[in-house]
Amino acid sequence: xxxxxxxxxxxxxxxxxxxxxxxxxxxxxxxxxxEVRRGELVAFLGPNGAGxxxxxxxxxxxxxxxxxxxxxxxxxxxxxxxxxxxxIGYVGQGSSGSPAQRVRDELVVxxxxxxxxxxxxxxxxxxxxxxLGITPFADKQVQHLSGGQxxxxxxxxxxxxxxxxxFLDEPSTGLDPQSRANLWQHIxxxxxxxxxxxxxxxxxxxxxxxxxxxxMVMDAGRVIADDTAPALKASLAGDTVTxxxxxxxxxxxxxxxxxxxxxxxxxxxxxxxxxxxxxGARRLPVVLRRLADDxxxxxxxxxxxxxxxxxxxxxxxxxxxxAHAETPTDTPQGGPR
Amino acid sequence: MTTTxxxxxxxxxxxxxxxxxxxxxxxxxxxxLRPVVRxxxxxxxxxxxxLVFLGLFVPLLVVQTGxxxxxxxxxxxxxxxxxxxxxxxxxxxxxxxYEIMFGSHERTLVAPISRSALLVGRALKEVxxxxxxxxxxxxxALPFGYRADPLGLALGIVLLAVFGVGLGSLSYTLALKTKSxxxxxxxxxxxxxxxxxxxxxxxxxxxxxxxxxxxVASVNPVSWVTEGERALLQGExxxxxxxxxxxxxxxxxxxGLVVGIRAIRRSD
Lengths: 337, 268
Ligand SMILES: Nc1ncnc2c1ncn2[C@@H]1O[C@H](COP(=O)(O)OP(=O)(O)OP(=O)(O)O)[C@@H](O)[C@H]1O
Ligand SMILES: [Mg+2]
Hints:
The structure holds 2 protein chains of 2 kinds. Chain A is an alpha/beta fold.
């Protein structure tokens, strides 16, 4: 997926060519080659320190790449920074509102930065204050807000200019369930009404699963998978099928049938057999019918669809949680205190 | 909490990508001043330190020099005004450093505004507390017999403002360079501010000082500004001392803005 400079497909919003960032001798991002089309919602997934923020900071002109290039909304990120900045919205991992400023003032200023008149910026700010539930703390200083309130303000600031391409770095971190649902409602509405392209990072697997058309998995500076969530799950992880039989001596007979039908060798612990299989939901009834024919008594059967964590496990040999535990210290530049 | 229709996008990207440094500087300046205007007492509270110096040093100097209070004030007040700039404006970079760590600086770097405006606007904002604080200090000294030449005071404040823009820019530059290393910022800041202060004759006259001290003081722009400030407040409006003070302040302002703009352009 290289970049054909100048001749970028009209509906390509982001395209990168071997985009690389090195900090000392650490390859924070290595040979990033991605292409994002207008209107897509892409979720960037990966453990702490994978290089998600660094990638976003390069694409938003905050960080000059060590090598490689990228075009964002038709503009080169190193030679046409002003044009890129004028076309995007960005919600960073830290706090967007300045600590000593009042919330509503910051929203209006952001609109003014984007060339809006005072009246237009004020009206837009009121709209976002209202719809993001900011009203109760709109006149407070940012430094006196709770973490979740601050996050809502960050998102409102990022939406002030109604960008056609919105970058969000862990937007839902720190939000309560209701605010998270509200955030997603906003993102969904933005896309439905304006065809906004959304490129976000998240640690919430179920969020990526539910809302993103496309999931990119990053690990140690490289994109190791890029597909729809269902496709990733089907090709990499498969369903987890568990069967319990009545007697321990029947487990061995059942294992033969399970392996034959699911095309996967089950692990047997006592009377329980577990196997990972693609399309497990449709094959499980076949297993049950075959076992009934053989006179094996099945006491329970479950089929659990895979999660993106299973995908990560299949890709890297460790779960996201384990990967997080490996990098306890994480101090990205400009991050929160 | 409901989802509403999003209003039409603002100015087109092409128009926004064109540089508008004057407008951007104005936006940044007004934004920086807003918390000061909303909470003016912060400016008054930061007068505590200079007032302590005024209250404790002046009686000491009266005893040691045998001069009248009014006379000592004539010598000491201009120095206190310079000190306000040194300590107040010289530390202003710590606000930016806090914003660098908080994340809000990053947001302004992605906004479609000129980066030099981000620095110049902040530096110009320093003028407001300098003017307010100078006037308050002079007003407090009046009941104790202090008198300043009105025109000289006006020019003296202009001199401090120019000096403050330079010093503030340098302080911001230090913040941009040290990023989230707070202790480096303060270590550098403190190890520069105190020698600059002491070797400028603000607190104690340097007349009887060792030769090497006077040599350092003679190339210290702060001592030039202090000398000029003393001359101006006593009504000496046109003289070599005043000219040299303005020259020193201007050179510092230009230098500060140049390195500051370079630093913020490279900021990430
Ligand atoms: N300015 C910097 N200087 C040096 N190293 C950095 C800098 N910024 C990031 N890194 C390093 O680069 C790597 C990638 O960091 P990055 O912030 O992109 O990770 P991330 O995927 O966003 O992680 P998280 O999920 O914790 O936010 C990390 O090892 C980090 O320590
Ligand atoms: Mg990150």
